[in-house]
């Protein structure tokens, strides 16, 4: 196990680069404040350095909200995003995830889509981000690592990616939702039911969306 001194590299940290992305982003980006003690604990358990973008997000942010909180990128946890990279993945003493073995969950969206780094759970390149799509109940490779994923969240066409999942007035509706919650849509996105704007919606724990969708998906 590397010490915190070894993991925190102020001289070659990617934090300035990530801040620069946020300042120039095409999408709305909000850094949530990190608690120094919790951030240090998360980084230590992850055993990644701040030279990596993942380590930087874990140590310097409590999480990142994209597009008014539609997309939540996990960090070390904060009041508005209480989960962190360790607790959400249910990392055990052996350093492995018990929530979704051979993967590492790094983000999710408000309608029950989840993003995970491939650690052998999927066929494809190790370290690539896979997306669990709530309209197909399947994991799909995004053909990018975590750094490129964060860059995409800042600069990519996020509205187009989610255009079939959004409803009229979605931004105002999700603004008060915290990072431990999501929106359950019925009929479900994978089912026939007409435009999403006309479907019933309710705020539920994000854990409920995980259990209802991912645990029952074809690849889980």
TrEMBL record:
InterPro entries: DUF2625 (IPR021239)
The protein's name: DUF2625 domain-containing protein
UniProt source species: Paenibacillus elgii
Organism placement in taxonomy: Bacteria, Bacillati, Bacillota, Bacilli, Bacillales
